[in-house]
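pinging the channel bc i need a second pair of eyes. not urgent but kinda urgent?? the chain im working w is below, pasted from the shared doc
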Amino acid sequence: MKIRTSTFACALVLLSVWYGIVSKTEAATSPESAYLFTSFQDADQKYLRFLYSFDGYHWTNVPGTFLEATVGAHKQFRDPSITRGPDGTFHLVWTSAWHDDQGFGCAHSKDLIHWSEQQFVPVMTNEPTTVNVWAPEIFYDADADDYLIMWASTIPGRFPDKLEKHDNNHRLYFTATRDFKRFAETKLFFDPGFSVIDPFLLKVGDRYVLVCKDNSRPNLNLRVAFANSPLGPWLDVSEPFTQKFTEGPCVLKVGDFWLVYFDAYREKIYGAVKTRDFKFFANVTSEVSFPEGHKHGTAIKVPYKILAGLLEHGRQISENKP
């Protein structure tokens, strides 16, 4: 009950400030930061949405939508991945088509409200038989001062199909950029010997952790691998640590634990496990809550003023609706 009460109190103060209920002095008790989760919904697959939380366990919709897809073969908006660069700019990438695209969507923003012109990044045109570019994930590599972008693609016949369909046998690929104008040549990122999708990369101490979905027919669940470099080689691939029919992982540090969120798509819920070392995982799905309809995104920590701006923007939109 302490966590729920604290979360509710923070949210109440935040909303009260914007509605003019409390004074600036009282507002000084508001938190310095908050958590944001990028989101989309299967119902439309056209818009960027956000959730917010103060404890990483209980999530609430930010009212409104914040970006409508305009690039790609089908102008879809799925799997939004976000990171914030050292200059404070947020960079967003997303899946722009379920099939037929050989690239992904990309945009940037300072406040998550006003966005740059969207661009389509054609990363697989050198492989003309590529079926898809799924779930691009962006990672800022501070040591190299560039951005790595990873995704899953199927190139029919490139790897043994085993139990997979010929057009649904994925491996992970990557590119890199410093300015989002010039992108490095696409290369293979991870081939674990089975179909793999939905990468999420993070640095833990001096090592790197890759969370991904084993998309092979017997499993369809999450694993982790480890490396001394953000580009691998990826070793010590774990056994699955979630149940079957889970995907779309992302990781957030909350207190002493890392929370690994995932989409349990057959159950139509969002779940989570927590870990200190990415070797032992405790299921905490019963302790987290998400709004209905939330799908695959990325959770990050942001300054409180970023969330306050989003909530104020959503309030203004709702007030101006006819």
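so Residues 2-18 form the longest helix (17 residues). and The first strand starts at residue 33 and ends at 39. — does that match what u expected or am i reading it wrong
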